[in-house]
Amino acid sequence: MSNQPVPKTIAMVGPMGSGKTKIGRRLARDLDRPFIDTDQRIVAEHGEIAGIFERVGEAGFRAIEREVVAQALTEPAVVSLGGGSVLDADTRATLRDLPTIYLTVSERVVRGRLRGGKRPLVQNDPDAWLRIFTERRALYEEVASVRFDTSAGHITALGGKIAAWAKENS
Ligand SMILES: Nc1ncnc2c1ncn2[C@@H]1O[C@H](COP(=O)(O)OP(=O)(O)OP(=O)(O)O)[C@@H](O)[C@H]1O
Ligand SMILES: O=C(O)C1=C[C@@H](O)[C@@H](O)[C@H](O)C1
Ligand SMILES: [Mg+2]
């Protein structure tokens, strides 16, 4: 039997469009770990997110999300969480014990990133992103081990900085 410690989950949190999926996938590749995106797992198991909101409302979506996130955070992977996962107190308690990378983005930059109909909470409401982010900002800060802003600069350079931090802290 090996005495190697099991690597901890590395979690990525932040508001919609901050880059959790994009950066998380690159980080997993850099660290040679599996990549899990909880939104993608939910879609694979329950269908498109907008459809889930239509069928069971936001509360129903959050119940599904809580289960999927709890499972994912037990896996030795890079795990990108849905933007609203931090609303759940149990999820936050788990995240506080893990290396948790908090990604931010400015409102000006995110406007160009959120096109398309996949995010029901910001669809048809240009001010929703900032309102939701403002409500949740303290929750992201509560769980964050470190913060990186994705608004400016080259994604490769940013990915390198994040990978260096993750190698030191996981
Ligand atoms: N420097 C950057 N870092 C991260 N993403 C970037 C960057 N520049 C552009 N993007 C683009 O921003 C878009 C949003 O990123 P992504 O889907 O990873 O966000 P997210 O945080 O996973 O959002 P959600 O919570 O809605 O799933 C993507 O199309 C991505 O290619
Ligand atoms: O911030 C949110 O509440 C959400 C973010 C996305 O990742 C999805 O989980 C969903 O669109 C809800
Ligand atoms: Mg995503």
Please give a structural write-up.
The structure is a single chain. Helix content is 54%, strand content 11%. It is of the alpha/beta class and 170 residues long. The protein has one domain: Rossmann fold (3-Layer(aba) Sandwich), CATH 3.40.50. The longest helix has 24 residues, at 49-72. The radius of gyration is 16 Å and the shape is globular. The site of magnesium ion has 5 residues, from helix 1. One of its GO terms (molecular function) is shikimate kinase activity.
Q: What's the topology here?
A:
Elements: E1 10-13, H1 20-31, E2 35-37, H2 38-46, H3 49-72, E3 78-80, H4 89-96, E4 100-104, H5 107-113, H6 128-143, E5 146-149, H7 155-169
Parallel strand pairs: 1-3, 1-4, 2-3, 4-5
Helix pairs in contact: 1-7, 2-3
The structure holds adenosine-5'-triphosphate, (3R,4S,5R)-3,4,5-trihydroxycyclohex-1-ENE-1-carboxylic acid and magnesium ion (MG).
